[in-house]
Amino acid sequence: METAQRPVATPLDAPAIRRQFPILADPDLVYLDSAASSQKPLAVLEAMERYYREDYANVHRGVYRLAERSTEAYDEARRAVARFFNVPSTTQVIFTRNTTEAIKLVAHSWGSTNLRSGDIIVLSEMEHHSNLVPWQLAATRTGARLEFIGLTPDGQLSLDDLDEHLATGRVRLVSLCHVSNMLGTINPVEEITRRAHDRGALVMLDGAQAAPHLPVDLSTLDVDFYAASAHKMCGPMGVGMLYGRLELLEAMPPFLGGGDMIRTVGWRESTWADLPSKFEAGTPSVADAVGFGAACEFLSSLSMSAVREHEIELTRYLYHQLIELPEVEVYGPVPECRSGAVSFNMGDVHPHDVASILDESGVCVRAGHHCTQPLHDKLGLAASVRASVYVYNTVDDVDRLIEALHRVRSVFA
Ligand code: PLP
Fold first, then answer.
1. Could you write out the DSSP letters of every residue in 102-145?
2. Could you tell me the distance, in angstroms and rounded to a whole number, from the CA of residue 34 to the centre of ligand 1?
3. Which atom of ligand 1 is nearest to the CA of 179?
4. What does the alpha-carbon distance between residue 261 and residue 153 come to, in Å, rounded to a whole number?
5. Please, what is the average pLDDT of the chain?
6. Regarding beta strands 240-244 and 93-96, do their DSSP bridges make them parallel or antiparallel, or are they unpaired?
7. 102 Cα nearest atom in ligand 1
8. CB 224 within 8 A of CB 199
9. In Å, what is the CA distance from 294 to each residue of 215, 274, 297?
10. Is 177 considered catalytic here?
């Protein structure tokens, strides 16, 4: 069996990065749940506090200087997010509450004007509920049908299934996770997009697990919509983003109606503001957007290529350490085709028991169905344990997890 050497160094100085995260000052804390939500560096916390202390006022409304500074902070946050994803125009970056809301925006707004009875929306069997339920609702509303790309035995998407669905000529949209939050699979999204576009279908990517971990260049990726959440990218909870192709966003009707998203309002009808305001009704979560911008700058300062390389090293080591434990079954592909989210089970020990015992050793992992209930059903599982690594995790963290798993084995022996 192939084994992974304990990495001596990775492209990131993870111990130094860890020191920038106040919550990780506790040396006993081994945080391996970043796929659920990442921790926040000082740079993000300070940017948000500075905004509240120095620049706070409502945006887009005041003519006084403080309100202008607040609006400028919000605009700069959008520019920072656009730079991170290499989006040509800030009009294509819509702030949402999270990935879920970004997908819902497309499913509702694009879906209601573009889907008809008999149309097909293609999803996959590895989708998070966030990229499943909004399309179920859209299908119910419009009469469109959902079809699924199945999985190969090693946890990758079956591109033959994609081709079969596309061959019907009825597929309007393919909406997939860029990276699976359960299997860790990094999907071949360039190839999928090429095939979908060749058949006239649009492509939406759920980037919740990709944006924090891989370089994502939306100017070359060629997808039509892309969604991400700040809280998984070292930013705050409560803000996410939707990228859209300009002509699609311009043609789409608003999602929520109210203040800020209008140009004119009459008693019986209104007209809409330009992008991106058309999709941002009401007072936005400005401090969260400022934190999102700071998180993008923080990750860029580490270099997303280095983040990826660091995670490849850690994931390879984690994966091989796990499969060497006799009772452990790891799900998903080999380390080279996956991200740092690694789901597994330990014989018939319930994942909640595994996670509770790990917690006694200060090791935080996720246990449950990770919002992928249909995928767990498909794999014949009620639940699994998931350990996930990020920029602040070290080789020692992996060792601490494995040591704690030995304790689980001895408790249940
Ligand atoms: N998609 C994937 C692949 C995820 O992992 C998650 C969160 O775990 C989401 C969507 C939903 O993200 P949020 O809860 O921030 O909307």
1. HHHHIIIIIHHHH--TT-EEEEETT--GGGTHHHHHHHHHH--E
2. 12
3. 3
4. 47
5. 97
6. antiparallel
7. 16
8. no
9. 17, 25, 5
10. no
What is the Å distance from ligand 1's center to 206 Cα? 8
Cα 47 to Cα 294: distance, rounded to the nearest angstrom: 7
Q: Work out the pLDDT band at 1, boundaries 50, 70, 90.
A: low
Q: Is 177 in the pocket of ligand 1 (CB under 6 A)?
A: yes
pLDDT digits (tens, 9 = 90+) for 244-272: 999 999 999 999 999 999 999 999 999 99
Question: pTM higher than 0.90 for the full model?
Answer: yes
DSSP states of 221-274 as a string?
Answer: H--SEEEEEGGGTTS-TT-EEEEE-HHHHHHSPPSS-STTSEEEE-SS-EEEPP
Cα gap 239→294, rounded to integer Å: 13
Residues 6+ apart with CB under 8 A from 377: none
Lowest mean pLDDT among 58-67, 100-109, 168-177, 399-408: 58-67
Q: Is residue 124 lining ligand 1, measured as CB closer than 6 Å?
A: no
99 lines ligand 1 (CB under 6 A): yes
Residue with tokens 């996959």, as numbered in its chain: 124
298 in Cβ contact with 43 (< 8 Å): yes
Decide: 127 in ligand 1 pocket, CB within 6 A: no
CB-ligand 1 contact for 185 (6 Å cutoff): no
| Alpha carbons 71 and 69: distance in angstroms, whole number | 5
CB contact at 8 A, 261 and 280: yes
Residue 2 confidence (pLDDT): 61
Q: For residues 42 and 262, what is the distance between their CA atoms, to the nearest angstrom?
A: 36
Distance (angstroms) between ligand 1 centre and the Cα of 178 equals 11
- Residue that the structure tokens 């989006």 belong to: 87
- Nearest-atom number in ligand 1 for the CA of 101 is 16
